[in-house]
Amino acid sequence: MKGIDVEALGVLERQMDRILQLRRAITDTVSSGRRVFLCGCGATGRLSLTLEVLWRQRASPQLSDSVVGFMAGGDVALISAVESFEDAPQFAVRQLKDLGFQKGDLLICSSEGGETPFVIGAVEHAAAYSTWRRPFFLYCNPDSALRNRVERSKRVLDDGRIEKINLSVGPMAISGSTRMQASTVLLGAIGIALLFDDPDAARREIIELAGDSDFQFLAKYIETESSIYDNSGLVYYDTSETLGISVLTDTTERSPTFSLAPFDNSNDPNPQPSLAYLLFSNADSSESAWSKLLLRQPRALDWRAHLEKAGLTRLLGFDFSRGIIERRQKRFPNLSQHIFRIVDEGDSLFFSLGNLDHRSRWEGASPLARHILLKLLLNIHSTLVMGRLGRYEGNVMTWVRASNLKLIDRAIRYATTILEDRGITRFTYADVAFELFRQMKRIGPTESIVLSTVNSLKAAADNPIPSDS
Q1: pTM for the full predicted model
Q2: Which of 187, 249, 287, 420 has its C-alpha lying 20 to 30 A from 110's C-alpha?
Q3: How does pLDDT run across 327-372, given as a tens digit for each residue?
């Protein structure tokens, strides 16, 4: 899996001319007193906010607000997807306007698949509104696939007002798990353009750090964490400001990828416990923890129709300050609690879980290179923990949560693939879609929609209803 990740980073070299063009656009925007906006959904939304945090870590106070990261649903969507936003281009336009996007500002949009309606809505609005500052659109699917299959993507590719950077890396290590290689190369491409005067040197540094680092130590941590879950335990990922956004990203993305309960919210009366939870043990309140995470005050949506899911009260209910341990212990008294510490010690990355301790040297590495290395380590770690818990079959994401139109289509195709692997070829795409929607009404949020659809259709194939004679 490490080899796949390092190989995927090679796509950055092939697009260095375009990345340098993006660097020039960013420099010109900031030097002219305008702002750079970073937009995405899900994993690309989290990488947009990650890059804003990295910018704030290095920028002078006068320039700290020059970069604005946002995602579909606002900051609360870092932790829990806000229903209907990803499929609504008009919501992207409204969020852009609420954030104060002006003519002369630069919009950089990223979409792993290149087809997300929210992201496309944002980039098309910027192209029409700020005509002399072309927005950028970065994506990881071949142009031919998008042109032939997705009309809205074809529209973007054919729009001369939009700058495109194609970062296709091929299939993911786990089919469709774009939180892995696709989001990594997008983070790298935008990050080296945003944060470095010499993007090519930054690219080489990232690849060298990832390639030279030892990943084998993860094996014991994977075994230990999966054993904790097998024995009714919970894990707190205890970290600090410098690494928090990347640790949060991995722990929250497990929920939609593997149909796990999302971070439980302190305001919910009877939540399901999240197996993993972020912890800032040096924060004494939810407000403090969010400020340490983002290096600014959180941006909740105050839209009347979405206050319950995306407002400030909901956001602060996701409390990862030190008090959350006691509160969750009272809520879930039958579950043991364990601390997984991930700390930047300056010259090394320190991992500690139970009786395991490990340090990975990264002396002199830039913050972006450190975050990409940490992302690779955590993505592989959490994916293999989930594999030990049976949350995918082969390399197919059988436990993906079908929470938007893209993922519904993905679940239909995965169910079809598994049926065909089992020798069942009688069902059309429409047959599988119909059954999947029927199963969505029947099963719970932490059950596998793919496997429930497969099992139902397999039963139908094994026991066909005889036709009338």
Answers
A1: 0.94
A2: 287
A3: 999 999 999 999 999 999 999 999 999 999 999 999 999 999 999 9
- List b or e across 302-313, with b for residues whose CB sees 16 or more CB atoms inside 10 angstroms: eeeebeebbbbe
Q: Report the number of secondary-structure helices (H) and strands (E) in the chain.
A: 20, 10
Q: How many Cβ atoms are within 10 Å of 151's Cβ, its own excluded? A: 9
pLDDT digits (tens, 9 = 90+) for 423-455: 999 999 999 999 999 999 999 888 999 999 999
Q: Which of 423, 386, 420, 384 is nearest to 401 (CA)?
A: 386
For residue 33, the Cα-to-chain-centroid distance in whole angstroms is 30
Report the interhelical angle of 2-9 vs 199-212 (nearest 10°): 170
What's the fold here for domain 2-212? Rossmann fold (3.40.50)
Cα 170 to Cα 297: distance, rounded to the nearest angstrom: 38
Domains of the chain, by residue range, sit at 2-212, 218-388, 405-462
Distance set, CA 14 to CA 10, 17, 38, 44, 420 (Å): 7, 8, 22, 21, 37
In degrees rounded to 5, what are phi and psi of residue 373? -60, -45
Residues 6+ apart with CB under 8 A from 420: none
Helices 429-442 and 449-462: angle between axes, nearest 10 degrees: 120
Hey, is 273 helix, strand or coil? coil
The H-or-E segment that residue 340 falls in is strand 336-344
DSSP 8-state class, residue 239: -
Residues 193, 24 contacting (CB under 8 angstroms)? no
> Measured in whole angstroms, how far is the alpha carbon of residue 7 from the centre of its chain?
20
For residues 377-387, one letter each, b for 16 or more C-beta atoms within 10 angstroms of the residue's C-beta and e for the rest, the string is bbbbbbbbbbb
Residues counted in the chain = 469
User: What are the start-end ranges of the E strands in 131-289?
Assistant: 136-139, 163-166, 233-238, 276-279
Instruction: Count Cβ atoms below 10 Å from residue 212 Cβ, excluding itself.
Output: 11
Region 160-188: what's the mean pLDDT?
A: 94
d(CA 98, CA 151): 28
Angstrom CA distances, 357 to 69, 342, 349, stand at 34, 10, 11
Which structure tokens are listed for 25? Answer: 């656009």
